[in-house]
Amino acid sequence: MSTNRRQFLVGAGLAGLGMAGAGKLFVDRANATDDIVSAVPIPKSKLLQRFAVLADTGTGSLKQYSVGRALAQYHTKNPFNTILLAGDNIYTNGEFSKIKPVFAIPYQDLLQRGVKFYASLGNHDVRTMNGDLQVAYPEFNMQGQHYYTHGQGDVRFFVLNTNDIVNPQSPDRVKQLDWLDRALAASTAKWNIVYGHHNIYSAGVYEVNKMMEKDVTPILKKHKVRLWINGHDHNYQRSKPIDGTTYMVCGGGGAGLYPVQPQSWTAFAKSVHSFGIVEVYQDQILLTGIDSKGEIIDRGLVNFA
């Protein structure tokens, strides 16, 4: 752990114990589910797709299982057929031998209902065989590729292996960035959504990734990508639009939580075990954060224009 990150964790933890201002505001708002829902009305245009987002899940802990149960309960009343799994699928070192307790069992109900997971690789996942066994795992639907695209119609997803992008020595770094640029240019979907494990913008311990900001955000801006999703920081965050893109962090899937300190570009942030629900409409996207008790903690809109 770096000195800066250690200082952030300690400082934010102490601040959280005594802070009565912004921190308490976020907690109070999280308990006001009805107010959150009424403040952000459901778009009136046609619903194109609903999907869920999880990251930093693969601990096999009680917290992971509680998030899985809440997600399955949500699915019962609000069906969806896709879950984006944004990395760190197997802790601590990507040992595929753990796949049953960290994936097959906690999401058994959803898998049996035919829900498909589309995974990306996190920094813990590539510690064993560079994540190749996960890439080949049928239930992760990765098409045998470390980065790939999926979706249909007006909604298309672009999945990155951000481990290569944050590593200046990786031989696949430039290749992958070029692929993203070309794949987005070739897309005919109205909504192009990009996700991977590492954050670009975060109000948590990983802050702003300058390398990702320099190399990835120009591509997102060029192709008018309205939504970026990641894990890595173990909490839930939603940014205000930054050059037209909203950044969503859904790293509360089961691993130990990291603190957050809202920034000027933060729309909502909370250190909580949780998952995200994304509903894509014709001209807007509705983002919803839900905690492990099934309570709505956040709602926000992403506009197409």
Provide an overview of this structure.
The radius of gyration is 18 Å and the shape is globular. The model is unreliable at 1-31 (pLDDT under 50). The protein is built from 11 helices and 13 strands. It has 305 residues and is α/β, with parallel strands linked by helices. The protein has helices spanning 3-18, 22-30, 33-39, 62-77, 99-104, 108-112, 132-136, 162-165, 173-186, 210-215, 217-222, and strands at residues 47-54, 82-86, 116-120, 148-152, 155-159, 191-195, 227-230, 236-239, 246-250, 266-270, 274-281, 284-291, 296-303. Helices cover 31% and strands 25% of the residues.
Protein topology:
Elements: H1 3-18, H2 22-30, H3 33-39, E1 47-54, H4 62-77, E2 82-86, H5 99-104, H6 108-112, E3 116-120, H7 132-136, E4 148-152, E5 155-159, H8 162-165, H9 173-186, E6 191-195, H10 210-215, H11 217-222, E7 227-230, E8 236-239, E9 246-250, E10 266-270, E11 274-281, E12 284-291, E13 296-303
What is the helix fraction of residues, given as a range? 25-40%
Gyration radius, rounded: 18 Å
Q: Provide the number of structural domains.
A: 1
Strand order of the largest sheet: 4-5-6-7-9-8-10
Number of helices: 11
Distance between the termini: 41 Å
Which descriptors apply to this entry?
disordered N terminus; 31% helix; 13 strands; 11 helices; Purple Acid Phosphatase, chain A, domain 2; six-stranded mixed beta sheet
